[in-house]
């Protein structure tokens, strides 16, 4: 708008045919193209450019957090999600132009915590008070690009950034990372935990590689078992000596 590039956010409804539980395959080439229904915009005119939007991980899908420049905005979707009301907000304070790059809403602690990244710092926030609960300064040597919470293990958070590293943190003690991965040779843009087996970590980087890492030592699963015992029993009989 007015020759300026603005990044904004909106909430859309997917066609009912594509909702989970429907029998039609969305990739069916014979199906007609469906259009999304615009429900509402997240009005950020007073807060700056949107960097990230996050649904509440659990709950009824009525809460969204957005990060706009140096603001955290908590939205309440009302009237059948057709209107977004700003219920609370907080701002980063400090020297210079502080801007968020990414964030992640924790599925633990009754969904009352989110983590954000700005510059080289990772911060934790309580969504009830919108106050900071922990701060990892210089979490990475350069810009922090992405974050993800371990879906099965409370307090565990992964971060990645332009220093080519992926780091794993215990948010109860943020002085040192629990573990550091240095597999990439350029900026690491994304990090994601596998939803079922949290020892599997996927990272994507501008070194043109996607790497799947097996982090058994900091996972919630003992010995890194990913196969049901029943499936193993036949093989175990045959390979008992080898094991």
UniProtKB/TrEMBL annotation:
Region annotation Disordered: where it falls in the sequence: 222-243
Family named by the database record: Belongs to the WD repeat EIPR1 family.
WD repeats: 137-173
Keywords assigned by UniProt, alphabetized: Repeat, WD repeat
Domain EIPR1-like beta-propeller: 31-212
Source species, domain of life: Eukaryota
PANTHER family attached to this UniProt entry: EARP AND GARP COMPLEX-INTERACTING PROTEIN 1 (PTHR14205:SF15), WD-REPEAT PROTEIN (PTHR14205)
Designated name of the protein: EIPR1 protein
GO BP: protein ubiquitination
Organism: Nyctiprogne leucopyga
Pfam families assigned to the protein according to its UniProt record, in alphabetical order: Beta-prop_EIPR1 (PF23609)
């Amino acid at each position: 708008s007015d020759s300026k590039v603005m990044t904004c956010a909106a909430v859309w409804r997917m066609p009912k045919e594509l909702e989970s539980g429907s029998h039609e395959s969305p990739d069916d080439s014979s199906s007609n193209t469906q259009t999304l229904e615009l429900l509402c915009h997240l009005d950020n005119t007073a807060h700056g450019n949107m960097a990230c939007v996050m649904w509440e991980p659990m709950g009824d899908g009525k809460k969204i957090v957005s990060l706009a420049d140096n603001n955290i905005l908590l939205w309440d979707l009302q009237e059948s999600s057709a209107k977004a009301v700003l219920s609370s907000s907080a701002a980063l304070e400090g020297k210079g132009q502080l801007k968020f790059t990414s964030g992640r809403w924790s599925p633990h602690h009754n969904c009352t915590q989110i983590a954000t990244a700005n510059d080289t710092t990772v911060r934790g926030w309580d969504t009830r008070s919108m106050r900071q609960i922990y701060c990892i300064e210089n979490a990475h040597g350069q810009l922090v690009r992405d974050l993800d919470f371990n879906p099965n293990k409370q307090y565990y958070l992964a971060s990645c950034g332009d220093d080519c590293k992926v780091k794993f943190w215990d948010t109860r003690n943020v002085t040192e990372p629990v573990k550091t991965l240095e597999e990439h040779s350029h900026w690491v843009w994304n990090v994601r935990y596998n939803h079922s087996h949290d020892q599997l970590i996927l990272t994507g980087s501008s070194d043109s590689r996607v790497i799947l890492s097996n982090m058994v030592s900091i996972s919630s699963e003992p010995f890194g078992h990913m196969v049901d015992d029943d499936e193993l029993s036949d093989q175990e009989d045959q390979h008992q000596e080898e094991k």
